[in-house]
Amino acid sequence: MPLIPENAPPAFHLLAKPTGAVCNLDCKYCFFLSKEKLYPGSRFRMTDELLETYIKQLLESHRTPEVTIAWQGGEPTLMGLDFFRRAAEYAERYRKPGVKVAYTIQTNGTLLDKEWCEFFREHDFLVGISIDGPEEVHDAYRTDKQGKGTFGRVMRGLRLLQEHGVEYNVLCTVNAANESKPLDVYRFFRDEAGARFIQFIPIVERDNETGFQEGGKVTDRSVGPERWGSFLSAVFDEWVRRDVGTVFVQHFDAALAAWAGYPPGLCVFSPTCGTALALEHNGDLYSCDHFVEPDHYLGNITETSLIELVASEKQLKFGRDKESTLPQYCRKCPVLFVCHGGCPKNRFVETPDGETGLNYLCESYRAFFTHIDRPMRMMADLLRQGRYADEVMQVLAAGEETSGKRTVKAGRNDPCPCGSGLKYKKCCGKINV
Ligand code: SF4
Ligand code: SF4
Question: Is the CB of 327 under 6 A from ligand 2?
Fold first, then answer.
């Protein structure tokens, strides 16, 4: 049992990549594929010995009643099902009494079959399916090694998960091919893919030879600096009117937490980060899945224990730097409380007054968080009253019915539709959404 350093976090998130960057597909924007260069000549397969070491250390390092074992790639299912069966056996062997183990896996879904689904169901896996929307936008970049679209194969995997009652969410990158189709994408996930949990991830892909986070140019596959915000705003407008409480969009949940005064639960919108690390197939640990590169190498868990690396000064500094390197422009920003400057990986443009380190997506974040301010205040107010956030839909509907008059009849104790956060009886009843 390793000594837990005093400054170690009680819990952390670790994405383990048992096949490294290796994948059966060849998605055009995938930043992982270039990481194969980090390990020339490697077979990119986590050994059984390392698997046991990793699971043991992970479970020993946590001081929480639940520990998540999270698999990521490349494509982790390339390891074969027996690898994950052994992982579950090791987890059972090394978990502390009373500790629950939760499993997640991010996959392109193309290799799933009945056996995989039965295993996921048996162990209550949460399966993340990578899919970018309906066929024409998904297939723009998510192709196989022959350049063919993969939509049909991904949907086959998703349907299998549904048939077997496996819990799943969808992870959708927002890129140049789908940035202008927010409602097509969202409605497809909601109505055709049956998704109840949706994560959107902006593609900001640096245009350089190294594949690392360096240089100031982005590829033409990247989402436009203002389009990420307009995409989120359009989806939000639909969601807030009809899907609150039935569809969960990670960015909206994180934003609502900020408005309600809770931690966002998403590192990108936290003041600091550093508790979401990445483990390579050979035991090398890196500060974050977006920084699997030499400058952010922490050590190998077969030489230094996982928890020592997680609590190392290098990693703690990585996490603190998210806040300490914020430009003044962010520090004075009205939406800093929710944005916190975004992910450091995307902070490579200049502020209007020439300071370095502004987020490439700043324009999007400013616009999006300003756009959702009033409904977010309404929902936060509902939560503070011990009510459900989904009541916001009634308030908005009532407001829109009488929008000609710009006033609504809400109950005396309902939140005012103007979004002030006050009760209707103490406010104006005007609609500002
Ligand atoms: S660098 Fe970005 S993705 Fe990585 S932990 Fe920090 S905020 Fe999260
Ligand atoms: S919106 Fe822009 S200026 Fe404001 S905190 Fe976010 S990145 Fe910084």
Answer: no
H helix and E strand count, the chain: 15, 12
| Six-digit token string for 340 | 């916190």
CA–centroid distance, residue 193 to ligand 1 (Å): 28
Pocket of ligand 1 (CB under 6 A): 267-268, 273, 276, 288, 290, 322, 343-345
Q: What is the pLDDT of residues 204-233, one digit of tens each?
A: 999 887 777 788 889 999 999 999 999 999
Rounded-to-integer distance, Cα 178 and Cα 231, Å: 9
Split at pLDDT 50, 70, 90, the class of 171 is: very high
Distance CA 154, CA 145 (A): 15
Of 40-49, 154-163, 358-367, which range is least confident? 40-49
Length of the chain in terms of residues written: 433
Expressed in angstroms and rounded, the spacing between residue 335 Cα and the centre of ligand 2 is 7
Residue 289 annotated as catalytic: yes
pLDDT at position 407 is 47
What mean pLDDT do residues 409-424 have? 59
> Among 423, 377, 415, which residue's Cα sits nearest to residue 398?
415
Q: Which of 330, 338, 364, 373 to mutate to test ligand 2, by most ligand atoms within 8 A of the CB atom?
A: 330
Distance in angstroms (rounded) separating the CA atoms of residues 70 and 102: 8
**Is-contact 368 269, C-beta < 8 A?**
no
> Which neighbouring-strand residues pair with 299?
285
The predicted model scores a pTM of 0.90
DSSP 188: I
Using the atom order of ligand 2, give the atom closest to the CA of residue 329.
Answer: 3
Mean pLDDT along residues 356-383 = 97
Q: Ligand 2 centroid to 331 CA: how many Å?
A: 8
Catalytic residue among 289, 373, 381, 414: 289
